[in-house]
Design goal:
By secondary structure, the protein is of the alpha+beta class. It is built from 1 helix and 7 strands, in the order αβββββββ. The chain folds into 2 domains: 36 residues; 81 residues, no CATH class.
Length: 126
């Protein structure tokens, strides 16, 4: 009887510790992959642009435009951007790379899209 109580106590402590560990891992994963709310530093109009998978795409956007997300619809890759109104535009270059391709120097990771059964990663050149 005494050993079964100890076994139960040890088992309960183990389960609690495992639950806490898994909750912390999920929290870290959400932060790492950008899940959750994002504070924007700009106001403007939300626009959607198509990016060409496997190539460089140039968009004329204000330097202060903020990217909201990257998603695939069908076999196309799209980027949603908050574009401030009445600001000078500059050429911003986005590379849409398949897994295994080289990332250009001075690039910032934007996101990953899954068109059809493919995977493309979007980077902005700086």
């Amino acid at each position: 009887m005494q050993s079964s109580i100890w076994f139960f106590i040890i088992f309960a402590v183990f389960c609690i510790a495992l639950g806490v560990r898994n909750a912390q891992k999920k929290k870290n994963r959400d932060v790492k992959f950008g899940k959750g709310p994002k504070t924007l530093n700009v106001t403007g109009v939300i626009n959607k642009y198509e990016l060409e998978p496997g190539s460089r795409s140039a968009l004329m956007l204000p330097a202060s435009a903020e990217i909201i997300t990257i998603k695939a619809i069908g076999d196309a890759v799209y980027i949603w951007v908050v574009v401030p109104e009445n600001q000078v535009t500059v050429k911003r270059i986005f590379n849409v790379l398949a897994t295994g391709e080289s990332v250009p120097e001075n690039s910032t990771y934007i996101g990953t899209a899954f068109p059809d059964k493919l995977v493309f990663h979007v980077f902005e050149e700086k």
